[in-house]
Structure formats: C-alpha cells, structure tokens
Design a protein that fits this description.
The complex is a heterodimer. In chain A, 38% of the residues lie in helices and 25% in strands. Chain A is of the alpha/beta class. Chain A has a single domain, classed as Rossmann fold. Chain A has a six-stranded mixed beta sheet with strand order 6-7-8-3-9-10, sandwiched between helices. The longest helix of chain A is centred in the C-terminal third of the chain and has 18 residues. By secondary structure, chain B is an all-alpha fold. Helices cover 88% and strands 0% of the residues of chain B. Chain B contains ten helices and no strands. The longest helix of chain B has 39 residues. Chain B starts with a helix and ends with a helix. The chains are: A alpha/beta, B mainly alpha. Bound molecules: adenosine-5'-triphosphate and magnesium ion.
C-alpha cells in the first residue's frame, strides 16, 4: 500500500506540488494523468524516496519513508521496480548486464539461471536476442523496453512506470499495456503508471488520478472519470487546447 | 548564519561537510565489504595501468632535471658527488608522491568526475538507487580503494625511474664519479624518506578519488554541469594535494624524528 499525505515540493522558488494526497491499495493499479510539466515524474520519484518532500509524508506499507536516510531506504526500495521516463540504462553495460544488474548483485541465482531469466524478460518486452548490444545501439523505444525488463525481472511488489508507452508504436504500446495488466494480476503487483495515453489509462488503471494545479484535482475508477462532466477533466481527456488565436 | 550560508565561505564549508559525510559512508561501507573483485580490479586497471605513460614520463624527466640543476649549483662549491643524495631524498619524500598525484589527479580525477557526473545527469544514479544499490557502495568505494592501492605503486615507480634516470644523467652526461655518487645517496636517503612518500601517496589517492566522486555526484545539470564538475575535480584535488603535502611533511618529519 502506498499513501501520500499533503505532499509539498519546491525546486528553489518554483512550487511543483502543493498538497498532494494519494492512496493506492496493494495489488491495485493507479494511473496518474496530468499536463506535461505538471509534476508527475516528481511525484513518482517521491514514492520511492528518490526525492524528499519539503513537507508531507509518503508511507509504503504503513512505514513513513520520508526522512529515512539512504541506507534505510535501500530496504524499502527492494520492494520497488521503476521504469524511468528516459529509460536511464547504464550506458557502460550491455543490455544483458543492465537487465541482470540486481540479480547479479543479490547473488541468489547461478549465472545460468540469471541468463535464462534475462532471456525470458527480454522475450516478454519483445526484444529477444539483444543481450550483447549496448544501450547506445538501441532506439529510444527499445531502450525504454529494456528499462522495463530491468524493472520486472526481479518481480518486485510495487512497480512504478513513468510513461511506459510514450514513443512506442501502437502495436508495442498495446503489448506493454497488456504486460502491465498481466504483471499486476499474476504477481499481485501494486502498479503506479504515469501516462499521457488515455486508451492505456482506461485499460491498465483501477483508479485514475488527475494531477492539476499542483494537487490531485480528480480521481476515481476510469469509467467514472472518463464520463465526468467537469470542464477541466473533460478538456484534458478530450485533448482540446485553449485557442491562442492572437499569435498566428 | 544566514549570511554565512549565502557567501562562498558557506558554500565551501558545506562542500567540506558533504565530502566528510561521503567519506564516512565510504569507510562504513568498506567495513561491511560490498565491493566485487571484478569492479575493484577494473578500477585498479583503469587507474594504475592506464596512468603508466604519464607517470613514467613525469618521473624520468623530473629526476633528470633535478639532477642537472642540483649539479650545476653544487659544482660551484665542489660538492658534485652529493648531487644524487639531494635527488634521492626529494624524489622519495616530496616530488615523487606529489607530482605523481598531480598527474593522476589530472587524468583519473577528471575521468571519475566526468563518468559519475554523466551518470547523474542521465538519471543513471537514480536508477541505481531504485535497484536497491547505494551509490557510495557501488561507485565510490571501488574507486577509492583502487586509487589508494594504485597511487603508492605508481609513486614507487616514478621514484625508481626518477633516481635511475638522474644517475644516468649524472654519470654519463655530467661525468660525476659513480662510486661516490651512489655512496652519498645511500648515506643520506633513508627508508624513512620512502615511507613518508608512500604514506603521502596513500593519502593523495584518497583525495583524488573522493574529490572526483564528490564532484561527479553533486554535478549540475546538463553538459555544462559535467564540464564544470570535471574541471573543478582536477583543480580542487590538485590544490588539496599541495596544501595537504605541506602539513603532512611537517607532521611526518616530526614523527620520524621521534621514532629515530
Ligand atoms: N531536478 C529538478 N530541478 C528543478 N526543477 C525540476 C527538477 N525536476 C523537475 N523539475 C521541474 O518540475 C516540474 C515538473 O516536472 P516533471 O518532470 O515532474 O513533469 P511531468 O509531469 O513528468 O511532465 P512530462 O509529462 O512532460 O514528463 C517542471 O516544471 C520541471 O521544470
Ligand atoms: Mg515526466
């Protein structure tokens, strides 16, 4: 279970989050939508302790993780997997070493077993046979999927996805959506998905949270939220921009 | 307090404090030994083997010029055969460790800062943290250890090369009597000089790695941030080495006097 209470965050003088509340039950998946630059990635990074809030608390399975030091956080982070918006692969390592990173460090499995698991994980994200490639040799979408493989391979309890399908073609996007649902249902994983893709939000979320004006503006099950008549929610979901006629 | 925090002095003190915290983390992590041999050996290879050429050239030419200059001065007072004694002592306890450390700071300190800085800018350090890995365990400790192992070895190498090339220049170019030259050198250069040099280089190895890692981990965003972190790593490491050297000399010479 992940709970966020009155989270506030500033970068310098710029206020990014101003009192965000969030509750995600175990085994459920939450989708976070909101305008670009609205602070979704920042919010996601708070959930795993990569950023510390200025005030407010983040609780993971009932434990307050704000104010924990880096070493105490390691234990909490073992429960997590995270897919970064920009993949964040280790560029000095091959795909295989990237995906196997945590398994290698845990020393729980034999090298042959690790190799097998890496092959399976790469198969799942539709990139079989790329083990020996370096991240620089992959396309942006491929890198993102390697990042996904790296996060799911050790079967964490909680998975955070930062725009997992942005920049992928429709077919791969669809398979990633299915993967998120499958991982969630089979492994009972709690998932938090940040996305701009309304179709994917509808499919993978038990709950949808809309971040607007530095707060959670609206939330609810997808059917409910997508049927909302609130003008701001409607505008976002239908994707209508305010006219800027006086410019061009 | 607020005023202090806003001046460069405050910034400088904060930096020192953060480095101290990072060093403490590194030492604690060392005690629980989370380093893999593969990482450590790779870093020793990178710091030690890849610095060979710079260290060899520095050692040889420093020894040679020191011999020549000392000879020119000593010759005026007919003390030719004491030349290599001066070279031996100063190579062992000052020039060997300091010049090697400065050269390695330029090469390795910059590389460490650039590598870790790039990792920070491209969120690779955040990725590391999400994979339940402490950046200090994984990035700082192997580099720190490797640097402290490699630097004394490189220093010995440059000392040996410096003295022997000094000998060659002295005997074959300047025509000093080899027997007296060697005898005088052995009389005045003691084990203690070499020991002081090794202790110093061990300390400088730590400074180079810690400053490089710190500058990388705290580097600003973007390519400019990495560039600045790299230069600052070299500048701060070099300055720290020179300042530390003065105080280490005072302290170690005192200790040596007490022990003898
Ligand atoms: N490390 C940082 N330092 C300073 N400002 C930051 C930092 N990270 C994010 N910001 C600011 O926080 C705001 C929110 O950024 P964030 O990356 O969370 O947006 P986002 O909602 O994920 O957008 P997108 O959908 O485009 O990914 C932005 O205005 C950005 O400038
Ligand atoms: Mg984002």
């Amino acid at each position: 279970m992940i709970e966020v209470r009155q989270l506030k965050k500033n970068f310098g003088t710029q206020n990014i989050l101003d009192g965000v509340d969030l509750l995600i039950e175990s085994g459920q998946s939450a989708v976070i939508i909101g305008r670009s630059g609205g602070g979704k990635s920042v919010l996601l990074k708070h959930l795993i302790g990569l950023l510390q809030p200025d005030s407010g608390d983040v609780l993971v399975d009932g434990e307050v993780i704000t104010h924990m030091n880096e070493r105490q956080l390691l234990r909490i982070r073992e429960k997590f997997g995270m897919v970064f918006q920009g993949a964040a692969l280790f560029d000095s390592m091959t795909v295989e070493e990237n995906v196997a990173f945590l398994l290698e460090r845990q020393r729980k499995y034999s090298p042959a077993e690790i190799q097998r698991r890496v092959a399976v994980a790469l198969e799942v994200v539709d990139l079989p046979g790329t083990q020996k490639k370096k991240p620089a040799e992959l396309s942006g979408g491929m890198r993102k999927r390697v990042g996904l493989a790296r996060a799911i391979i050790y079967e964490p309890e909680i998975l955070l996805y930062d725009e997992p399908t942005t920049g992928l073609d429709p077919i791969v996007s669809d398979s990633i959506d299915q993967l998120i649902v499958r991982v969630r249902d089979h492994l009972k994983v709690t998932s938090v998905v940040v996305t701009h893709d309304m179709r994917s939000a509808r499919r993978v979320g038990h709950q949808v949270f809309m971040l607007h004006k530095k707060k959670i503006y609206a939330s609810g099950p997808p059917q409910e939220l997508f049927a909302s008549s609130d003008p701001i929610v409607r505008q976002f979901i239908d994707g209508v921009a305010d006219a800027k006629e006086n410019v061009f | 307090m607020n005023f202090l925090a806003r001046t460069w002095l405050g910034e400088w003190l904060t930096g020192l404090g953060r480095i101290a915290v990072m060093s403490r983390d590194a030492v604690l992590s060392l005690l629980t030994w989370k380093v893999t041999w593969k990482d450590l050996l790779y870093q020793i290879y990178f710091i030690g083997i890849k610095s060979q050429s710079v260290v060899l050239v520095t050692g040889a030419f420093t020894g040679m010029v020191l011999t020549a200059q000392t000879y020119f001065q000593f010759h005026k007072v007919k003390m030719d055969t004491a030349t290599l004694a001066v070279v031996g002592v100063s190579m062992c306890s000052e020039l060997g460790p300091v010049l090697t450390a400065l050269m390695v700071a330029g090469r390795v300190g910059a590389a460490i800062a650039a590598e870790i800085g790039t990792m920070r800018v491209t969120e690779q350090i955040d990725a590391l943290r999400t994979l339940a890995t402490h950046p200090v365990d994984y990035l700082v400790v192997p580099r720190l250890l490797a640097s402290q192992i490699a630097l004394p070895l490189l220093t010995v190498e440059s000392i040996v090369l410096g003295i022997s090339s000094g000998y060659v220049v002295g005997v074959h170019l300047l025509g000093i009597d080899p027997t007296y030259l060697l005898d005088n050198m052995l009389k005045y250069t003691g084990n203690i000089d070499l020991e002081i040099g090794l202790i110093k280089s061990f300390v400088y190895g730590g400074i180079i790695a810690l400053v490089g890692c710190y500058k990388g981990m705290t580097c600003g965003m973007g390519a400019e941030g990495v560039g600045r972190a790299t230069t600052e790593a070299v500048v701060y490491a070099s300055i720290s080495i020179l300042i530390t050297n003065f105080f280490l000399t005072l302290v170690l010479q005192r200790v040596a006097l007490m022990l003898l």
